Amino acid sequence: MKLNEIIKKIEPLDELAKQNCRKRWDSIAKPLYSLGKLEEVIVQISGITKSHKVKLDKRALVIMCADNGVVEEGVTQVGSEITAIVSENFMDMNSCVCVMAQQAAVDVYPIDIGIMRDTKVPNRKVAYGTKNIRYEPAMTREQAVQAIEVGIETVFELKEKGYHILATGEMGIGNTTTSSAVSSVLLELSPEVVTGKGAGLSDTGLEKKRKVIAEAIELHKPDKNDPIDVLAKVGGFDIAGLAGVYLGAAAAKIPVVMDGFISAAAALAAVGIEPEVIHYIIPSHVSKESGGKRLLDALGKEPFLTCDMCLGEGTGAVALFPLLDMALEVYLKMSTFEEIEIEAYQPL
Ligand SMILES: O=C(O)c1ccc[n+]([C@@H]2O[C@H](COP(=O)([O-])O)[C@@H](O)[C@H]2O)c1
Ligand SMILES: Cc1cc2nc[nH]c2cc1C
């Protein structure tokens, strides 16, 4: 599925469906707007799906798994080999997000979009890891587009399987370095401001990480007005794949729940490619990673959850589903003022 054709399919949300959804909320026997963002998110989903009859029965988490050449520079606490190990654990439902997803009835779809060795994870590899951005662009522009298209195709495969809502997740040692680099360029903020410790880096490691990011940006000069250039030069296959998930979801009219820092960096790139995508994205939590809040602010999204999480894998996104379920139950099942009044006037 070609990126250019997908972009053309992305439309504004359906205002009539949103109005009908709002009417239903306003008829429910409770104070107006009293479920706040839980009401708004159901209205958003009705606009995305073009129907006030909102359904969230079938939900899938897409986990883009990939390695990053920049790990050679000592910007992470653990080595690249961990990416493959954790990614294969997804297949055995043996990771934090898998436990959470089972609890929230979310199906888990890990994808090997560029792990550095062969794995038992479904293979959509663009390459065996990216290049080290300190010396070379992470990937070619063609590879960035290919990774985006993997994300788009994944969405359409899941649509075919009947999924009503998607969530984003990723696994890739070193991907907070690439996400920070992408954020630094797209937000026009220094690496100091947007770069944190990722998965448990030391203070000296953090200094090194910021320096490596600054050097990579200086060397490759990514064009902030061209998000594909930014993804190709200082991003990763996982981030590009997730950007494709947002673009694909918007084209397929499927709501997509965004996870933490890496997922938000990918969202910023996707919105840079096609601004209308923003309306199809549902935020979940604010990552504890330094740039997490900055990215949400730039996307104009407020988190539902502030849990100081920074695990990745899609854990924050999956954590939102029980809340979405409660909101939808009230929306679908609660009596209206009219119904209650009629009951109240029934003779005893
Ligand atoms: O999503 C987040 O907010 C987040 C913040 C920090 C770390 N992570 C996870 O940790 C890994 C990246 O950390 P690092 O230090 O290797 O760049 C990667 O597999 C992510 O899923 C995720
Ligand atoms: C063990 C481990 C699990 C992860 N899950 C997401 N990122 C991770 C990083 C590490 C190190």
TrEMBL record:
GO terms for biological process: cobalamin biosynthetic process. Pfam families: DBI_PRT. Keywords: Cobalamin biosynthesis, Glycosyltransferase, Transferase. It catalyses: 5,6-dimethylbenzimidazole + nicotinate beta-D-ribonucleotide = alpha-ribazole 5'-phosphate + nicotinate + H(+). Its EC number is 2.4.2.21. GO terms for molecular function: nicotinate-nucleotide-dimethylbenzimidazole phosphoribosyltransferase activity. The active site is at residue 313. Catalyzes the synthesis of alpha-ribazole-5'-phosphate from nicotinate mononucleotide (NAMN) and 5,6-dimethylbenzimidazole (DMB). Belongs to the CobT family. This is Nicotinate-nucleotide--dimethylbenzimidazole phosphoribosyltransferase. It comes from Anaeromicropila populeti.
